[in-house]
Amino acid sequence: MDFQILFFLIIALIVGGVALSNYYFSKKAIVRRKLKKAAGKKITDCVSGEIAKVVGKVEFVGKPLIAPLSGRPCAYYCVLIEKGSGKNWETLIEEEVAGTFVIRNGKYCAHINCDNVTSYLVEDREYSSGFMEDATEVLEKYLRDHGQESEGFLGFNKTLRYKEGVLEQGELMAVVGRGEWKNANEVKLPDSYGRVLVISSTDEEAVYLSDDPETVETRYA
To answer: 163 to each of 81, 125, 136, how far by Cα in Å?
Structure first.
């Protein structure tokens, strides 16, 4: 084989391997893998102390959060803002914020302890700003609140892309973690919720959650 052809094949394999590795170990891939592999349980069938995947509909408790880019009421949101072009993007802002909510599956609810969460929310709102495209007032305010600006050298617009994912009222989501039954008031929920399954991380694993349609498909153990 010609040395030049062999050289380019080796480079292509290296580049492809790096891309595959980056995807395999990305947060999105990890969360989807964890949730798709886990056997599900109905909330009512969960036992304190066991690791389980549960699926249910999001239910706000009290006043919901407002997603900063789209203005949607939500229980949880994530925002990713990147600068760059083509295949080269640098993260400027990555933020996740959790409100107070439960997920309901039948009569009972699960409450997620969000102290140690690894999440993947479908980024269903995307915006951009750059050459001949100014950032909106909403986007500009969000950037300023996080110590960033849409303009760079000599006032020229940076090429930015903005992505947002949220958990909305009634949306189906999946979560896997260690469950423990508690009285609602122990986790600062209204007494009307009675007993709730609290999903928390373990010493070895975070809580994994997602609203990706592939992750909410459940095979019950």
So the answer is: 6, 6, 14
